[in-house]
Amino acid sequence: MVYIRIKKVKNNDYAYIVESRWNKEKRTSQQITKQYLGPISQVNINKIPEEYRNESAIVKFLDSHNLNFENSMELNESLQERLFEKLKNYELNELIKIYNEYTKSIYSLLDFYEKLLIPILYKIGDQWAKGEIDVATEHVCSNATITLIDLINQKNINKKIPESSSTNRPIILCTPEGELHSIGCKIIESLLLEKGYDVYNITSPLPINSIESYLYNIDPIIIIISVTLEDNINSVIRFIKEIRQSFNRPIIVGGNAIKLAPKSQIQILEKYDKVYLNFGKFNDMITYIKTLKIT
Questions:
Q1: Is the model more confident about 111 or about 26?
Q2: N or C: where does the chain have the smaller number of CB atoms within 10 Å of the terminal CB?
């Protein structure tokens, strides 16, 4: 493992690239100085050898110290490329390794999704739309992503005490009828599980009445609907109309389709009570969920 170490000399901080190696004979790790970088205030991308620029510890160091942030973002882009290659080749062990390294220090699970995985998923979608990758590659990447998220979730599945003390009622994640994109809900599920919430992910191309019946049985504290395709917004409208006839739980609707939806459809959704569109950042959603009370 390669990382940056700080040494203080006469009240000045100096940075060094250090490699940690395991000494089998002494059964201990040894730190080997690879390169002197100079005063910490002068550390930038140009002083870091290219072979170390993809190391997650290097990215974390730059980000946490706010050193040349634009260049640290370039390093995130390098990690995105590495992640992309592993997704295309379905290298699950390497994908988990990237995740573990990235989240071992200052970066969170949310950072991993927002700074690495989600940008790559958009890139994959764009490349497929432009014919730069074939449908088989796109499917491999999607399946690898789903498996990766499932593996991450296994680490959080036993966290059953939610941050909010107001409710033990589950959260429902779903997609409207006709929607085939489920990765958005998988990511939200993963983040909610990490927070300790009970999550029922029922994303599938089910008819509205099937999902509606299930909701009544579960009686969730909130419903989160993810919609990617603009053509499916009308399905969301029909779904909420059916639900609101006898079920008044809060509903959050998000996804790329909402960002692109015409004003007329947005106005229809907004007329329903307790319906929130594109709620904002994930932490805002959690803050709202924590305020909910069982009624």
A1: 111
A2: C
